[in-house]
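Input.
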Amino acid sequence: MADRRSSWGKWIIIFAGCAAVIAGLLWYFLRDRDGVVQYQTTAVVRGDLTNEVSATGTLNPVTNVLVGCQVSGTISKIYVDYNSVVKSGQLIAELDPAQYKAQLEQSEANLANAKANLELQQVQAQRESALFTNKLVSGSDYDTAIATLHEAEATVQLDQAAVNMATVNLGYCKIYSPVDGIVIVNNIEVGQTVAASFNTPELFQIATDLKQMQIDSSVAEADVGGVVQGQDVDFTVDAYPYRTFRGQVTQVRNSPTTVNNVVTYDCVISVTNADYKLKPGMTANVAIIIARHKNVLEIPDSAFRVHPPETAMIITNAPAAQMAAASGTDTDHPRHHDHADGGQFRRTVFVLARQGNDDQLQAVQIKTGINDGLHTEVLNDLKEGDKVVTGVISPAGSGQNGSPFGGMPRFR
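Output.
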């Protein structure tokens, strides 16, 4: 009987202990904590910031020459292919010249016939002139002889022009490179017929020098205001994702392009391609460096999106401001200030400042510099190590945007 009582006593003690622990935990997590607001903070640190404009573009040769032909015919010979290095004036292809040789021979024959007729008319004119002088023929016969002579002279000129044209067309059967460079496109094969009746067919594309290339990048109208000639550029291509290439802005063209109501401008970026890794047509992911500042004070951008609770007590670094409740609606309150000042922006952040034994929330108006998308440069009124508020944690059990287990951060 005594053992049974002892066993029951142990179980009662265990249950009582568990109940006490559970009650303590519930009290800890569900208590009001006197409505104390907690803040998430980040220390002001020094670092390097880069303000850049992102864009995409296409790599192209600086000079890309399209080579065509001015006459129609059948390709008989091709002397180059893709990636062939050519010199200016080098023969790169030929058309079958048989047709144009025949046209030249026909034109030469017509010219010879016209010259023979001219000689006959010159002799006839001299005879008519002598007879007219001796008044043996009428004036009309003499005039007819002179007009026939002039007509023969004009025929000779027309046939000479036809010979010249046939000679030029025969010369067009040989296609020469107009520049020094490398063949990047070859659109023809031996035996292919090209027709130049309505437009000039494109036979080859020759890039003058692939050691110097350019990127034609599309920059949005919202960003183009910060892009100027001479700025440095970092870019990558999908073929070499772990390598960063360098370039420089050489031209910002004023001609806009509108696609789906989005206005962009072509910013030309010069690129040195000494190792020939970059190829025409590659897509470049461009970062145009607008400004780069080293070893500057910086804070996260989330510090500008913090709004303290309406019941928080805030002090400010404004000259005439005093400690006041945050529930005021005065638009001159420092939390509403966010404006430009001499090309720099004045914005408001909140700092936890030590006042006696307590941390006091202080509103600080600062001047900001460049922004890299995540952090912003601080130009005044903050020093390294200051605790800048980046988030507000509601008091536990307050029922305001939080759970009974300590609350969740809220960003406004």
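Residues 53-62+208-296 form a domain with the Elongation Factor Tu (Ef-tu); domain 3 fold (CATH 2.40.30.170).
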